[in-house]
Amino acid sequence: MAITVSLVALFGLVLYFLLRAGNLGYGSALTAAGFGFFLASTGAARPINQLTESLIQAASNL
Description:
Helix content is 81%, strand content 0%. By secondary structure, it is mainly alpha-helical. It has one domain (2-60).
């Protein structure tokens, strides 16, 4: 678990700097995919899924 969290932090930091610098290409796409993959295996996955489901339900009720 400690390795996964550190990879999430690393990918998140790299993605932040790539987006801020405006370097949007294949490298940032792979970084975003890696960030999402490792984030899904942390404890943050469940609240993110619940928030997404709530937003989808709220949008469908409008």
